[in-house]
Amino acid sequence: MKKMAASIWVLAWVLFMVFPMTGFAAGDKTIKIGFLTPLTGPFAAEGKKMVDGAKFAIWQINSTGGLLGKEVEMITYDVGQFKPELIMSGAKKLVAQDKVALMTTGYLGGVTDIKTMSQYDVPYIHSDTSHLAAKAVMENPKEHQHIFQVSPEESESYRGGLYDLIVNVPWKHPNKKIAIITMDRAYNRIILDANLDSLKTEVSRVSPGWEVVINEMTPTGATEWGPILSKIRKENPSVILFNDHVITDEASFLKQFLRNPTQSVIGMIYGPQNPDFLQLAGSDAEGLLWTGGGNAVSPNEKGKKLTEDFKKVTGIEPPPSLCLLVWAGIKLWAESVKTVGDERKYYEICRYMKGRVWNMPEIISQYVFDQHTNTLLVGDGLFVQALYQIQNGKNLIISPKVHATGSFKRPRWLTK
Amino acid sequence: MAQGNAIKYLPLGGVIAIFLAFPFLYTNPYILHILILCIIWSVVASAWNLILGYAGVISFGQLAFFTLGAYTVGMLHKFLHISPWIGLGLAGIVPALVGLGIGLVCLRLRGIYVLLITLSLQEIVPVFIKWQTQYTGGAVGFSDMPKLAIGSFSYGNNPLPFYFTAFFMAALFIFIIHKIIKSSIGLAFVALRDSENFARTLGVNDYKYKVLVFIISAFITGVMGGLYGLYIGFATPSLCGWEYVVILLIAIFLGGEGKFPGEIIGTFFIIAATELLQGTSSLREAALGTTIILVVFLLPGGLISMIHRLRKKIGEGLRKTSVGAGQSG
Questions:
Q1: For labelling, which of A186, A337, B119, B138 has a CA lying 20 to 30 Å from the CA of A395?
Q2: ipTM value of the model?
């Protein structure tokens, strides 16, 4: 009898699990946006910031009367560590079942998501920052005309990592040795290759003789840096490029490095834009350099208003990179829908989005899509890729000079 | 007697009928997609349970076999233009050969040593894939998967033909696994698991049987890996990741370790629950964790033991009713 009762309890729980409240879907009076994002696993912190960007964009749309007279709502789908089947499940659920009018994300890797979304015609806006995503559109424009990358390719975005640390940082490097630590993911491998290529070309034209003395691959979610730091302490490179954007990896590396620092400038890729990084690293983050997509807020009135509203909706100041990439993607889609007048006229919406120069005075970048790849063009007056330094808990732009909000300060671990 | 057999096979027939009718009654491609994943992973869990639950070999190489299967079918088509149907067969043979090699070496060992060797296979396969970038696509993954077709009918991105292909393949493999469990090999495993020394004194050669089952399990897992690759259209070294291992282990223990077809029920439950609780993010993980704790404490035999108990109760109830009816009549 006892066993029977236990069975019934478990059965009740199982039924509760398998038949949860599935009737959340709102009626036709809303326009739905499907949002694929990591909400669990090592990328969860990033994922939550992506959601903040989307939440803010939707709040802006709804607080000004909605879109075509309808309220906009977001449906999220957790893709964890970007398992291909999860991306496929998410896309099927959001497009086929929830009938969303836009699919969007911060990043999902730029391969599986593109392959999956090519099966549908719903606009898909991502900031994968992926060469492979751009290549897919270029090679098969018919199948991918509805896919837009609201960031440049990683091979362009982060190509200047070593260049920045060697040329744009006004510090007399004691030697010409470089250490590179790369997370073993396709995205970071491409960034590594781009930097190595840039070292042979752009860097060596300006400052020849640099040599990579440490080139290490690490798994996602690494927190023990002892063996790599031993090598760094032995070689004493003047430049360390930390090519791993998971904030726990970045913060743990920095903390362990500072226990016995070498005379090296450290450059990371965009992880420190996440306010959670500053919380994790604390005062150890002071002086750290990092490169990120230049969606920083403009120092004008519109920029101030954006910061104020963003804080009201999310409780934090807008981080300068990923969060606002998501915001901008939704914003330009909404503008296109307004112009076309029907959220289901996908082809017209995409054609409009592709053909325009998107000037958003709230941020420092201007969006122009490459007509062959549907990917943002990077450069002066276009999408700005910036070098930041953390000073007094704030992210200041050091380079390019035209957008600079501060100047380089020697980190405290550099004695001269 | 014939009536008894009919009653015995009634639940199985019902399940098969539901599976066959489902896509015609419910055409939502998302639900079909989830069912395809459930079917594929449940066979993998079953093949793993054969080694883990019945043969008692603590092997962690299953996802390596699965990954090898997915890459085999894609690469054979890309580089040798081999039809994906033949590729599916070879997707089983390649992991089976690897399984044979590993099995011959490690199945004479016990416990932790087998675990370590199979774990290293799980680590070596993704490293090898990333190293052979020109063939495998490296860390980015392999996306040149062929499309399945029967004659001039291409599966394309339509989940319906994939659903039936997965279903029939699963039915075949689950039948084979069931036959093994019920055969003298299965009995030998149960004997070895429950009383190893006694079984040996009766002349049970565990090494031979373990190697054989290791190969069969690798073959089945490889074929399902191939089908998975063809369906998803993509293979990546992350298929060897711990995320999948954990889900499969949970499915096996939740359903009932060494209690066929518990692992199938466990897999369906875990995949369906993970999907249906989407949008609740961390709450989902807490709910799944709670389920596992509940099952461990209240149902140590897994979900399958609950079904057995319910079936027994219903059977007893029916018998009482028929006896009562006989007496009153």
A1: A186
A2: 0.79
